[in-house]
Amino acid sequence: MIGFIFKRLLQAAFVVVVVSLVVAVAIRMTGDPALMISQGSTGITEADLVRIREGLGLNEPFIVQYFNSLMGLLTWNFGNSFVGGTPVNLLISKALPATLTLAFTSLILSIVISIPLGIAAAVSRGKWSDQMIRIGSLVGLSFPNFWLATMLVLLFGVTLRWLPPSGMAGFESYIMPTLTMGIILTATNVRLVRTTMLETLNSQYIMVARAKGLSESKVLYKHALRNCAIPLITYFGLQFGGLLGGIVVIERVFNWPGMGTLAFDAVSARDYPVLQAVIMILSLMIVLVNLIVDIAYGLVDPRIRKE
Amino acid sequence: MTSSATDELLRVENLSVRFGSSQVINKLIFTVRAGRTTAVVGESGSGKSVTSMSIMRLADMAGADYPEGRILFQRDDLAIDLISADQPSMRRIRGNEIAMIFQEPMTSLNPVFTIGDQLAEVLMLHEGMSKSQALAEAERLLTLVRLPDAKSLLTRHPHQLSGGMRQRVMIAMALACRPKLLIADEPTTALDVTVQAQILTIIKELQAELGMAVIFITHDMGVVAEMADDVVVMWKGEKVEEGPVEQIFAAPAHPYTQVLLSAVPRLGSMEGRALPLREALTVLEGDKPTLLGETRDQDTADYSAPPLLQVEDLLVRFDIKKDFFGRATHRATAVNHVSFEIYPGETLALVGESGSGKSTIGRTIQQLQEPISGDIRFDGKLLSQMSRAERQRLRRDVQYIFQDPFASLDPRKTIGYSIAEPIRTHGLLDNNRDIERRVGDLLERVGLNPNMVGRYPHEFSGGQRQRICIARALSSKPRLIIADEALSALDVSVQAQVINLFMDLQKDEGLSYLFISHDMAVVEKMSHRVAVLYTGQIMELGTRAQVFEHTAHPYTRRLLSAVPVADPTKRDRRVMLEGEIPSTTRAVGDEPPVMPLREISPGHFVAEHSDPQQ
């Protein structure tokens, strides 16, 4: 097990290096931050631009700049933002919790809804309740998330004024973004739960569990669900990764002070240190989640534990 | 019927069961008496399993409904109708008063829970025990089904147990609450014969100990003869006959029962014969049993010719475990220095239990598996020295028929396409009209209507599909057919027809067969010579008469004694068997020993062994 985790951590490091390298190269091809910063002010000479670049550390060779930002992950020091000069680690330590809590609450909401619904659909396969759940999930799938978000804001934030239309301030502000992401995730998850559950319900050991005289809820939630866990955990893990990426749009709509907003602004301003820190941390998160998923396999399935 | 009202435990009255619009059970009537074993026999589609699921009311979950009938179950003082009972009351009966064991021990236990948890669950549910009480009782139950080291078994998971052990756990689980009725649905069908013998003995002994009634669902007349007191014969959803087991076997009244019994291959029925026997078949014409076809000795083997196939010192190993750097640390020796030959027109049977290496030998001959060492000689030519073209030619000369006729035909291709494929692949005919004619001939040859070429596999029954597979194998005009458990998935009456088809084809086309099987009775009937395999080695090799009538190796003797005999008057001649088939997986460097073969009479080879009797 230790060897396994060690191997996975090496993989994780490799992934972070590759991803951040691609980002570092790509962003440098999009324009000069010195020009962006000096935009609007008059009488800028070439000498001023050179001075700005020097101040930002851009005169160093690319490999040194890249190595420094990579080291930042270990020392938790990513330098200062090009815009405003705030230390990047301060920005991150505000944005990361905002994004993680939003992603987690959305995923948890979706799991809590989709598991009972998916099981209900599987059990009543072909009956009207199954049809309703499937049609409902198709409708949910068809909403573009930014449209859904905008509609929620218009209805509850602007017209009814029940909920704060944007920003992160207390419990109420979580409701709409979580709901938006949760609905869209639930649409796919219900179908996934239903399919895995149908397969499991056909197993002989489910028949055996029923032949023991166990109640239907014991059969479903104890015997069947745990056997569905492997595909579900795999998928939820992947989904969490996708969630961190896809959250940018939602954060924009709700003006959520998270990693997505941070990344968006950094791209617009060619703010290398911020962008690289954000990307490295997000890819690290995704790799870690997948590691947790792999470890979870062994916990739910003794056949995997053996190896 | 002699049953009095007092000892009647279960009475099925006019039961009909429907799934949607199709009625699968029609006005079924039978009774089960306390403490006795009632066998419900029938072939696939007879409704025997649906009957057991209806008694448990588990058929409801699959969408069954019951348009008429009752199932009266005698509880302590009063009888309850299981059909009109609601699911909550059924839950108090299930696993408690009526328990069930199933066919597939490998999938009957939940893979993610320990044996102890799964056993304790039922005790906590019905007996109201605490977890620790239940675990203590679970340990006692595991000892009851003769599982060694019961305490440590409690904490183990199903995948760490063999099939035989799992079926014992299932029996322990079923018996946990001392049910009055045990329903055993083909409980030994998926097991090897020696393991089957152990399980049957355990069921019998525990039945006597606990005084429970057993409903034994099976298609195997040998098991019926071994186990049953009373027999219910089902056919197409109806009961055709019911009676004490001796009566059913000695004087079957219904034509279907007569046909069924005549189709059962009986071990020992070939005594005193030198050659395999192609027997006329009893079939139902209308509702009269009629004898069809000829009975003749299968005198097709030509021992004066050089052997068609020679297998020389074949060794096949599989890597099982690898270390950090991907090097093998543990290997299984599937085939351990095996040699034999097959002559033109001969049927050589490879018999053995699971893991004996019989299928691996077949796959190696068909070039689906590379041997570690040893060689295969076909028509005098060494496989290892063949050119590509010659190897391709060999693939044409050697054809394979698999166990599962459902899985071995492409469901999206017409059967005509599947049969013609080898002809096209090997370029035997290039004219479409010639190919069509050949496919039609082949279908006719295997007893199917040539007009069926355009149909798809799902439109055929299992027996018909196996005929299609045979037609496909014949299409490249092979000289050797490897039949790997080709009859095992078929109902006995269909199996008897396919056996005759095999023998007729051998006579007409001069085919040789490598017949891989675990079924000793079928082997006795069809083979010229027999090789008995155990953990990858030949234990005994000789003519059919030598191996079956002058058995010399103790393993062969054990195997033969484990086969249930389809004759209820010949019970209890069984040698009690203990233990499991050993694993062939060993650490690299620790190679299994090779037992040298000794020729004890001309052509009769026996592996060295340490049996005191010899």
Summarize the structure.
Chain A has 307 residues and is mostly helical.
What does this 3D model show about the protein?
The complex is a heterodimer of chains A (307) and B (614). Chain A has 307 residues and is an all-alpha fold. Chain A has helices at residues 2-28, 33-38, 46-56, 62-75, 88-123, 128-142, 145-159, 172-201, 204-211, 216-254, 259-268, 272-300, 302-305. Chain B has 614 residues and is α/β, with parallel strands linked by helices. Chain B folds into three domains: 1-97 and 178-253, Rossmann fold (3-Layer(aba) Sandwich); 108-176; 309-591, P-loop containing nucleotide triphosphate hydrolases (Rossmann fold, 3-Layer(aba) Sandwich). Chain B is built from 20 helices and 27 strands. In chain B, the strands form six sheets. Chain B has an eight-stranded mixed sheet, with helices on both faces. In chain B, a hairpin with a 2-residue loop joins strand 12 and strand 13. In chain B, helix 11 packs across helix 17 (492-509), helix 14 packs across helix 15 (432-445) and helix 14 packs parallel to helix 16 (462-474). Chain B starts with 7 loop residues before the first strand and ends in a 7-residue tail after the last strand. Residues 1-5 of chain B have low confidence and may be disordered. The chains are: A mainly alpha (307), B alpha/beta (614).
Topology:
The complex is a heterodimer of chains A (307) and B (614).
Chain A: H1 2-28, H2 33-38, H3 46-56, H4 62-75, H5 88-123, H6 128-142, H7 145-159, H8 172-201, H9 204-211, H10 216-254, H11 259-268, H12 272-300, H13 302-305
Helix pairs in contact in A: 1-12, 4-12, 5-6, 5-8, 5-10, 5-11, 5-12, 6-8, 7-8, 7-10, 8-10, 9-10, 10-11, 10-12, 11-12
Chain B: E1 8-19, E2 22-33, E3 37-41, H1 48-55, E4 64-74, E5 79-81, H2 87-93, E6 98-101, H3 105-108, H4 115-126, H5 131-144, H6 150-153, H7 163-175, E7 181-185, H8 193-210, E8 213-218, H9 221-227, E9 230-235, E10 238-244, H10 245-250, H11 255-263, E11 277-278, E12 281-285, E13 288-292, E14 296-297, E15 309-322, E16 328-342, E17 347-351, H12 358-365, E18 373-378, E19 381-382, H13 388-397, E20 398-401, H14 415-425, H15 432-445, H16 462-474, E21 480-484, H17 492-509, E22 512-517, H18 520-526, E23 529-534, E24 537-543, H19 544-549, H20 554-562, E25 585-587, E26 597-601, E27 604-607
Parallel strand pairs in B: 3-8, 3-9, 6-7, 7-8, 17-22, 17-23, 20-21, 21-22
Antiparallel strand pairs in B: 1-2, 1-4, 4-5, 9-10, 11-14, 12-13, 15-16, 15-18, 16-25, 18-19, 23-24, 24-27, 26-27
Organism (chain B): Aquamicrobium aerolatum DSM 21857
EC number (chain B): 7.4.2.10
Protein name (chain B): Glutathione import ATP-binding protein GsiA
